[in-house]
Every structure is written in structure tokens, then in C-alpha cells.
Amino acid sequence: MKMPSNKRKRMSTRSSMEAPPVKKAWKLRGPNFSAPTEMVTFLIGPEGNDEKFPVHKEFACHHSPVLKAAFNSNFMEGETQTYRLEEISTSAFRLLVQWFYNEEFDVFKEDDLDCENDEDDPGIEKLWVDQDLNLIQLWIVADKLLIRPLQNAVINVLEEFWEEPFVRHGGPSTSWIPYAYEHTTVGSPLRNFAADICAYKISPEGFAAHSEDFPKEVLLDMAMILSKAVSIWRHDDITHSDDEEEEHDDDFISDSGEEEEGEGDAALSPAGTFAFDDDDNNTSASGNDSENDFDHGAEEDIWLDNEDEYFIGDVPALPRYQCHRTWRSYHVPEDEE
């Protein structure tokens, strides 16, 4: 009879030594009030005349790596949990706070105002001017705090305001341009935006009425833009069919800006400029035929006459100038997480 063995079975300890699988933590997409009592204070305006704005630290730090580093440092901002912004108005800062909590901000549009019969009301014009400056200040503070999505959101709003046809009566204001140039450096997307607005959107009357709004830097940028855009074109460089020539002879833009009709050479006026409205060359003397002038990278040709004569019979007139217009992108790269 076989005797039972006294040897104990050796139990495997591998399973008991292995740590239980760690569940991956759910990555939060944004602040969730995990520290609802932790507040920081923003001081808006010059010292001695500032206004205090308390904000949840979690929200401010989530959107801005600059604020996150400042409030968690051993410097004054970290010790006092305060941060001073002197270059922004309280109205503009309120837009920043809205972005902290909602990732959007409120602006008013023409439909929000009762201005149907008061388009030239100085009070309404001041509302537009103040809001434009607030948005520019918001862009500059977002640049300082490295809040890239907010910078792009501001540009999107301004483009919507000032695209063709003008959503807003009167088009772009200009009082924000000196501020934009004072608080940015060469090559800034905001400077590019301002220079293009001046080159392509501001009327001669606008320059004359607000000459103080155009510092020499923006005028130099405008000169660079237009000198690169303008090239000489002669009539024999482009050929049209007889039907197209006849159509172009009949329709032209008068010095009053209205399209008029005529017969052949008799319709041509030294003060007028031809309007090309065919499908292949959808341009005009005013340059406003594009569906969206802020279509980044889009190109548009504008024809400008430099002499008082056009055609004498079939003989080409003196050279004309072609303005080759290209809109730049004013967005900044956003960091991907």
C-alpha cells in the first residue's frame, strides 16, 4: 500500500505578487471645480486705480500656461495669488473671464442694436469703436498669456464684422490701430491684419477723417503690401473675344461708383474704370466682388487706370495697373494636447 507523501504542494505565489492592473485615470477635458474654494485675484488697470476681479484658480491656470506658472511659483504672483494686467480695460477683461469659464465671449452685432434709423448716431458709433478696441486688447492679452485659441477666436469675430458686404454699417473702425502697433512687434499676425485692413478696407475719406489713427509703421506696411501687389498690364497682354470686348465697352464704373451703360467708345469716361464681371475674371474696379474678402490665401485682381484715355478705335491705350491681392492668414498655431 502506497503511503501518502508528506511533501506539501508548493503553491505558486506569482499571482499574489502581481499588482492588480491599474485603471487609467480619465483625462479631464477642462476644469471641473475640483478646488472650488481656490481663488486668484486679477488687478486690472494702473496701480492705485485698479479694479479687482476674483477668478477660480483652476480655470485661469487651465487656459494659460503663463498664469499656471505664475500662481504656482515663489514669486510675488505665487505668494499673493494676484496678477496685474495694466494694458487692458475692465470691459475687455470681462471678455477674458467669459473665455475662462465658457471658452467663448459675447459681442453685440448690428441686429442687437436699435439703429435702423440711427446709423449715424454718435452714441452707436462709440459702441462699435469701444468694442473693437476691447477685442484688440483681448487679443494682445491672450498673446501675453499664451492663450492661442482665444487669439484665433478674436480674429474670427473681427473678420465676420468686416467681411464684404459689410455686416456692420460703416465698416472697420480705426482708433484701435495705434494701440495694436504699440503693443506688438514686427511680423505679428495682428499687425498683418491691421495693415491689410488699412490697405484694402479703409476708404480715402476714412484716412482723411482719422489721420491720427495711422502711425508711420502701418503706413510703411501698407506701402510694402501695395508695392508688391501692383504690376503693369497692357491691353495686348490679354485677349478677349469680340463679344467680351463689346460687353466690357458697354459696362463700366463711373466716378460716382455706379455701373452705367453706353455704346462702344462713347460710353467710356476718363474718370471711369472697366468692370470685368465674366466668370473667368470675377473682378471689379472696387475690388468687392469676392464673396468673402477674408478667404485666407484667396487672390483677387483689381484693375486701375493711370491715364485719361482708354482706346482710340482698335489701338491700345497707355498701360494700366493690375493689383494682385492676396489675403494672409492671421491665425496663430494652437498647441495640440
What is the percentage of strand-forming residues?
Answer: 5-15%
Please provide the count of β strands.
Answer: 9
Distance between the termini: 73 Å
Helix content: 25-40%
Largest sheet: 3 strands, mixed
Roughly what is the average pLDDT, rounded to an integer?
75
**Which class best fits the helix and strand makeup?**
alpha+beta
What is the ordering of alpha helices and beta strands? Answer: HEEHHHEHHHHHHHEHEEEEE
How many H/I helices?
Answer: 12
Strand order of the largest sheet: 2-1-3
Low-confidence stretches: 234-292
Shape: globular
Q: Can you describe what's shown?
A:
- The protein has 12 helices and 9 strands.
- The protein has 337 residues and is of the alpha+beta class.
- Strand 1 (39-44) and strand 2 form a beta hairpin.
- Helix 9 packs across helix 11 (216-229).
- The longest helix is centred in the middle third of the chain and has 23 residues, at 122-144.
- It is globular and about 125 Å long.
Question: Features of this protein?
Answer:
337 residues, alpha+beta, 3-stranded mixed sheet, 9 strands, 36% helix, 12% strand, globular
Gist?
This protein is α+β, with helices and mostly antiparallel strands and 337 residues long.
What topology does this entry show?
Elements: H1 14-17, E1 39-44, E2 51-56, H2 57-63, H3 65-71, H4 76-80, E3 82-85, H5 90-102, H6 122-144, H7 148-162, H8 177-182, H9 189-200, H10 204-209, H11 216-229, E4 230-233, H12 242-250, E5 251-253, E6 259-261, E7 273-274, E8 299-305, E9 320-326
Parallel strand pairs: 1-3
Antiparallel strand pairs: 1-2, 4-9, 5-6, 5-7, 8-9
Helix pairs in contact: 2-3, 5-6, 6-7, 9-11
